[in-house]
Amino acid sequence: MITNPYPAHPHFSGLTGSLRTGNARVQYLEGLTGSSRSALVHACLDELKGPHLILFQDKEEAAYFYTDLVTLEGSPERTLFFPSSYKRSVQYQQTDEANIITRTQTLRRLSERRVASFIISYAEAMVESVVTKQQLGKTTLEVKQGEKIDMAFLEEILQTYDFHLVDFVYEPGQYSIRGGIADVFSYASSHPCRIDFFDDEVDSIRIFDTDSQRSLETVKKVNIIPNIQWEHEMGEKRISFLDYIPSGTTLWMDNPELITDQIQLLYDRTEFDTDPEHAIDKARYLINGKEIRQQLGNFRQVLFGIAHKQKEQGTWSFNTSPQPPFQKNFELLTSHMNECAAKGFINYITSDSEKQLERLRSIFNETDPELPYHVLSRTLHEGFMDQDLKISFYTD
To answer: How do residues 222-245 score in pLDDT, each as one tens digit?
Structure first.
């Protein structure tokens, strides 16, 4: 976990205060580079509470931002990732089971009272519609330790949910029954569960590994959820993800026009089977860019890097710069760090690898034993310097 420096920034209390009171519907943040954006967003957590949705144009940028937030938070508990259901894009219609699981887990968490603070997503994920919270509840079977449940009833429910009976489960949507044991691989979990029965009572529930068959943990309850993607349509109404999240959510975006344009492009390029017997109404399962653009206006927004256009809107100017490209030139790196230290900066070297940190310590001890720096055994995606806070974060 990295101690976040941004609560000490001179703009921090003004920005969070303005967001809390809602004096300006849209806030503009200028001059944030590298991972300073994720650091500022994370710092706003304790002040603003509530859920925050951070939207990007592409998956890669979203994934890097998610990793930064988890690093700064020290745990993934309060940070959710909402991906597309597809390996590449909805237009190629090749689903990815790991993505569907993550997507289902996020929807489930948001349907509970215990809402995560951060939700990270991107254009390709937003073009897909989702089931309503009510429908998700109807298609969720909660099994608790100690409750009475008939094995035949459980199997009937699983078949209704379109789970497939196999000898050994190895992927989501499968179940197996051997004596008084039922193995179920729900779309709500990355691992299957093993439900042990004593007569018609649930004796124990264990999460296990499909390869080794060894138990990973014992739990008191488990949620069994089928594939809720539109390909497995069960007659339910579907909505935009922006209709699913809490109305008080704060949206953080780099460029909303680019995001909605990308959503519209995906919508236009996606074509389904036009055979009358298998025809699919695209408008029922996908959300176009125009709809998303309208829905964005229902939320309080914070925009990165957008020029100040209206004087009545809040604009906050930051003074950061990206980490220079040292290209393994350690003399150049040492010189830069000394220059920063001479200006009153605190230098931080960050890396997930202890071996890499030891290597850097050895190099610095040889090149400049007096070099002032601190080591952090966690890393951010992109290094940056903040002139106001007088800090430099260097990534390996």
So the answer is: 999 998 886 555 566 889 999 999
